[in-house]
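Reminder to self: keep the SMILES exactly as supplied, no canonicalising. Ligand is copper (II) ion.
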Amino acid sequence: MHKILVTLLLLALMLIASCGSGNNAAEEEINEETEIVNIQASNWEFDQEAYTVSAGEIAVHLSNEEGYHGIEVEGTDISIDGDGSMITTLEAGEYVIRCSIPCGEGHNDMTATLIVQ
Ligand SMILES: [Cu+2]
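Structure tokens returned for the bound complex:
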């Protein structure tokens, strides 16, 4: 009887350990120098006209406050649908942020600028 209990306990520990190590790609490590851009989307605008960051590694977070939107940043590999995050490296410049999901009448007005200095 005691052996069975010990076996069950070990199995439980192994399950917990394997869950804990199952990192998904969205949780890539963010180092201290990574700049974070928080973008909030609603119908039909982003919360800022322009977002400014320093060149280098940046983490982009998109959250939908209202409706269902996404972003694409022209000239970069940034593409997020709905709520999500992406890490990428950008050179200095100005990039156009657009909603990537046909979200209704104001869709074409959903643009903003990402300024990388
Ligand atoms: Cu849209």
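Points to follow up:
The beta strands are 35-42, 45-46, 50-53, 56-64, 70-73, 79-81, 84-90, 93-98, 111-116.
The pocket of copper (II) ion is lined by residues 69, 99, 101-103, 107, 110 (CB under 6 Å).
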